[in-house]
Design goal:
alpha/beta; Rossmann fold; 2 domains; 6-stranded parallel beta sheet; 14 helices; elongated; transferase
């Protein structure tokens, strides 16, 4: 087969969840399928721009850096998606094209579309105007797609809610390659221990304000600090106000943006990982914490129960979150039980299985 995949997100310097998804998917597809040819499409904004080094010399890979003058793809995206990219798909005579991040070009080629989540359908994520545009384009792509892949059953249900035929959608869990437990605690802690860890942008969807409020209720009863690790977002003012109101300046640490090395270090030394998000398409960060042997507390909504399995404590409000944190930091037997369940649970998410299911969809 001649399979096209749009890999623009791989170009970013700081890898996001979507870029890690694309990298893991493409590399696992290549490992599992020796006879298929993969065409990797992405934008180049100048004629002299070089192609990506990633997989550049792989015999089954053909890079397709498609010239897009200036910032055409950003300022006139419909020209890119409806005319420029479709020309190259036609020229390469593809059997199938995969849009791994919510959008598809206007093409007669059979298409597969990955939907990670529909958060901007149900809450403000990127601002009202941009969310409206993204919702319109996503709906158009979902109706156009030959088949849709969702990363969780929760996201599949959301797609059905938006009018997509249930039989047109397949849930394919992405793979996960966690850390090697034998390599844990390799360096001294960068932040004062002990601590409870949250990782993510300080934005309303991540429910950080509720986390700080719950922590305030128990902060004088436990020795752990709370570390909020991630980029500042729309909830920063609210979070800082709760910290000030409760006199938590010495017990809550806000790190700002962190490097991959710091991320690893924070996991290695955390007592508990808390992720009280209001909505997630999957919640890969929950598996990431489990891979470092950190017991997890997360929300009981959207896809998070799928991501957590039986290896985490599920909470629904500030009261249950406060109770869960207070219990988990003091109950060593519960900590160990969750750690062992976590190690077992993450082994069920493999890129090999993801690639096998995806190839079945491509061939269908």
């Amino acid at each position: 087969m001649r399979i096209g995949i749009y890999i623009e997100t791989v170009k970013v310097s700081h890898k996001t969840g979507i870029s890690r998804y694309v990298i893991g998917l493409v590399e696992s597809l290549l490992e599992a399928n020796r006879d298929d040819i993969f065409y990797l499409y992405y934008q180049k904004t100048s004629m002299g721009e070089k192609q990506l080094d990633w997989l550049a010399h792989h015999p089954q890979v053909k890079h397709r850096p498609v010239y897009s003058p200036g910032d055409l793809a950003a300022t006139r995206p419909r020209i890119w998606w409806d005319y420029v990219l479709p020309f190259w798909l036609w020229k390469d005579r593809l059997d199938v094209f995969h849009g791994p991040n919510h959008f598809l070009p206007k093409t007669s080629v059979p298409t597969v579309l990955t939907i990670h989540d529909l958060a901007y359908f149900y809450m403000e994520v990127h601002g009202t105007g941009l969310d409206r545009i993204l919702k319109e384009w996503t709906l158009k792509s979902m109706h156009q797609a030959s088949h849709i892949v969702t990363v969780s059953d929760s996201t599949k249900r959301d797609c059905v809610k938006e009018g997509i035929d249930h039989d047109k959608i397949t849930t394919v869990y992405q793979g996960f390659e966690g850390s090697d437990p034998s390599n844990h605690i390799s360096q001294e802690a960068e932040y004062t221990t002990p601590y409870i860890l949250f990782l993510g942008t300080i934005q309303p969807r991540k429910n950080v304000a509720m986390l700080v409020d719950a922590f305030a209720r128990i902060s004088d009863k436990i020795e752990q600090k709370l570390i909020l690790a991630g980029a500042p977002g729309e909830s920063m003012d609210e979070v800082e106000a709760i910290i000030a109101k409760n006199g938590l300046e010495e017990k809550v640490v806000i790190t700002g943006f962190i490097s991959d090395d710091t991320r690893k270090n924070l996991y290695e030394h955390a007592d508990v990982f808390v992720y009280p998000s209001k909505y997630e398409g999957f919640g890969l960060v929950v598996l990431e914490a489990m891979s470092y042997g950190v017991p997890v507390i997360t929300s009981d909504n959207s896809s998070l129960p799928e991501a957590a399995g039986d290896a985490a404590i599920l909470i629904g409000d500030a009261d249950s979150l406060a109770d869960a944190m207070a219990k988990l930091v003091t109950d060593e037997s519960l900590q160990q039980a969750l750690i062992e369940k976590g190690y077992k649970h993450i082994k069920t998410f493999t890129w090999k299985q993801c690639a096998k299911k995806m190839m079945g969809i491509y061939r269908k």
